[in-house]
């Protein structure tokens, strides 16, 4: 299967429009070695023709223009996007659905019940789309069972619930429910290969650890280096953990978990603009290199 990273930054992108932190200022004025990044999304295909979009970022228009696989080819209107799977209802993962409103047919969208509820109440994107292309919603379970998508051959998707947070606009932001966030194992039956995609992840629970151990490639939450990163940068009072993201460094951090895995290629994605790993010459980036951990960038293609 092929994975194309459309966007590798967390909410806000890199640089963020109003941010003057060391990284955002540095990438804007080219005083650090770093790549600008759009907001988090990947496309997955087994045949290079029909693609499943994981999350729809507000940057989707430029992401499509940067990747011919998703562009129209043989007809006056068209798309390489067959369906969309949502890992959560966050703004950075769902606002792009509004950009797809010119679709001539309802968008096939796969999400949990909780995400469906948020997207029909607190942020009623699905209701709004009824006035445009409409939504063909497919409810997905998060009990470990798998599902396939019509038109997508040779891929099975196994979602599981994650401990993280519902979006800030959600009627139940401070009252987490299973299904607010999911991680997804993507399996190609003909090759037996597996990718684990989990861009927003607050805790390494047993199902997360198992998914990581059995995957050939993991693409997981790379939002923050430390818990207090945004506080230390003076941009917010929120800690990583309070908004549902496990930091990379320190005891119990993502690096420690990744170190225990021998099989998969290890990639961090959904990177916040304050994260020092965005600076390719930083100490923190060196640490990742030493641990064999990669940092996703826009345009990265992975063959598994
Ligand atoms: C998150 O995952 O916590 C988001 O990136 C936050 C946001 O979109 O503002
Ligand atoms: Mn996000
Ligand atoms: Zn910044």
Short summary of the structure?
With 304 residues, the chain is an alpha/beta fold. The chain has helices at 22-28, 60-65, 91-94, 96-99, 113-118, 125-129, 206-213, 229-232, 254-259, 283-290; strands at residues 2-7, 41-45, 51-54, 81-85, 107-111, 135-139, 156-161, 182-188, 193-198, 217-221, 265-269, 293-295, 301-303. The longest helix is centred in the C-terminal third of the chain and has 8 residues, at 206-213.
Verbal overview:
The protein contains ten helices and 13 strands. It is an alpha/beta fold. Strands 6-5-4-3-2-1-13 form a seven-stranded mixed sheet. A six-stranded mixed sheet has the order 7-8-9-10-11-12. The longest helix has 8 residues.
Q: Could you spell the SSE succession in H and E letters?
A: EHEEHEHHEHHEEEEHEHHEHEE
Our Rg estimate from Cα atoms comes to 18 Å
Q: What class, by secondary structure content?
A: alpha/beta
Bound ions, cofactors and other small molecules, one mention each:
D-malate, manganese (II) ion, zinc ion
Mean pLDDT: 98
The strand order across the widest sheet is 6-5-4-3-2-1-13
Task: Give the termini distance in whole angstroms.
Answer: 5 Å
Number of helices: 10
User: pLDDT below 50 for ≥5 consecutive residues: which ranges?
Assistant: none
Gross geometry: globular
Describe the largest sheet: 7 strands, mixed
Key phrases:
binds manganese (II) ion, seven-stranded mixed beta sheet, binds D-malate, six-stranded mixed beta sheet, globular, 13 strands, 304 residues
